[in-house]
Design goal:
oxidoreductase activity, acting on iron-sulfur proteins as donors; Rossmann fold; chlorophyll biosynthesis; binds iron/sulfur cluster; Protochl_reductN; disordered N terminus; 18% strand; 3 domains; 4-stranded parallel β-sheet; 420 residues; 7-stranded mixed β-sheet; alpha/beta
């Protein structure tokens, strides 16, 4: 199915909507970065051997550490076998929690096999939560039927929101898993502006999750948190619309919007951020020299495509051919969309064969895509960048702006070296 429709609101750019076969990872992939973020949480996937293989290969780097995720493999069984499956799950959880008293938050993560779909993981989580004192047990789905890879983070945070304590105090909450180095930088910048009532969701430890309520204003650090935002709104918190914190421009807009919501004046904001912004702009000069004038094509994968394209075209001089994203959240991307180059095609959803045809016809210099498409495109002589790297690497904030640009410059450097 293919149709051109104008975007809602004041942005009238046509959007190519596609609803065909798609090539993306499922939401289980989010566990790979979420388990590093919440340091006393454990993710128990209830799934098949395929799920276990996916996690093992995606998170191969964890092999030397005490793992904080595992897969409880549920083999094929009929309805009568489901009662046994519940008991088996309880036994597995009991064994795990006895062996690992450091676990304070346990996520039961659903997947796609039909046996898992039949199992009521929400009730299982409630039952286990009552049974194990001192360990919060929650559930969410990382199934490939319902989620693309970054939506796993959204589903995980959405499971946390109803559990957060209540407060009506005025505070700023930054929502989305960020590298600690980024959080620390932003804490310092906000402290320099006098903003100390600042919290992050998720927190690094289960017991430190922020309270939320009427006085909460929140910034979304990631564009893929639609459900989390909806639930925060339902708790009385208010979203602050702005750019996402990619590049110097995005970071300044993002931090400024948060500062304004806390009553910080323009002078104080500029005083606190000017040096860091100038450093970021200067550091971008190097990668910009390699990227300027290069044509880039985004396949839909991480939902980071729109802010990423805005950064690469406005701050690195690239030309966007197509900006594909799995889902376009009009309200959350309202500040981003008018900054995209008018000539680029904006597409939502995927029909992979059609998109490959468009890509091959356009012959871009660089394609951002999932792992499954990278090899066939490289074989056609097209340079690629794996979009999954963008969520594994700290890319938000001033000090990371040049690193982010370098991620895109590196494939060109590699290609040049191979040519030599
Ligand atoms: Fe595959 Fe579904 Fe398991 Fe993801 S959740 S690894 S898509 S079976």
């Amino acid at each position: 199915m293919l149709d051109h429709v104008p975007a809602s609101g004041c942005d009238t750019r046509p959007i190519l909507r596609e609803r065909g076969q798609r090539e993306v990872f499922c939401g289980l992939t989010g566990i790979v970065w979420m388990h590093r973020k919440i340091q006393d949480a454990f993710f128990l996937v209830v799934g098949s051997r395929t799920c276990a293989h996916l996690l093992q290969s995606a998170a191969g780097v964890m092999i030397f550490a005490e793992p904080r995720f595992a897969t409880a493999i549920l083999d094929e069984r009929d309805l009568a076998g489901l009662a046994d499956a519940q008991e088996e799950l309880d036994r597995n959880v009991a064994r795990l929690l006895e062996r690992r008293p450091d676990i304070k938050l346990l996520f039961l993560v659903g997947s796609c096999p039909s046996e898992v779909i039949k199992l009521d993981l929400h009730r299982a989580a409630q039952r286990l939560d009552r049974r194990f004192n001192g360990v919060r047990v929650l559930n969410y789905s990382g199934s490939g039927i319902e989620t693309t890879f970054t939506q796993g983070e959204d589903a995980c945070l959405a499971a946390l929101v109803p559990e957060l304590p209540s407060t009506d105090s005025a505070q700023l909450v930054i929502v989305g898993a960020l590298a600690e180095v980024v959080e620390d930088q932003w804490r310092r910048l906000y402290a320099a502006m006098g903003v100390t009532n600042l919290a992050f969701l998720p927190a690094r430890r289960a017991g430190d999750m922020p309270a939320v309520g009427q006085g909460t204003r929140y910034l979304l650090a990631q564009p893929f948190l639609a459900e989390t935002a909806r639930l925060l709104d339902a708790r009385g918190a208010r979203h602050i619309p702005t750019l996402f914190p990619l590049g110097a421009e995005g970071t300044t807009a993002f931090l400024r919007a948060g500062a304004e919501s806390m009553g910080v004046g323009a002078g104080r904001f500029a005083e606190a951020t000017a040096a860091a912004e100038a450093r970021a702009r200067a550091a971008l000069e190097g990668p910009r020299a390699r990227l300027a004038g290069k044509r880039i094509f985004f396949f839909p994968d991480s939902q980071l495509e729109v802010p990423m394209a805005r950064f690469l075209t406005r701050e690195c001089g690239m030309e966007a051919v197509e900006i594909g994203t799995p889902y376009l959240h009009r309200a959350h991307l309202a500040a981003e969309m008018p900054l995209l180059p008018a000539a680029a095609t904006l597409s939502e959803g995927q029909d992979v064969e059609r998109q490959l045809d468009r890509c091959l016809a356009a012959r871009p210099d660089l394609v951002v895509c999932g792992l499954g498409l990278a090899n066939p495109l490289e074989a056609q002589g097209i340079t690629t960048k794996w979009s999954i790297e963008l969520v594994f690497t700290p890319v938000q904030g001033y000090d990371q702006a040049a690193d982010l640009a370098s991620l895109f410059a590196r494939p060109f450097a590699r290609r040049d070296m191979l040519r030599v």
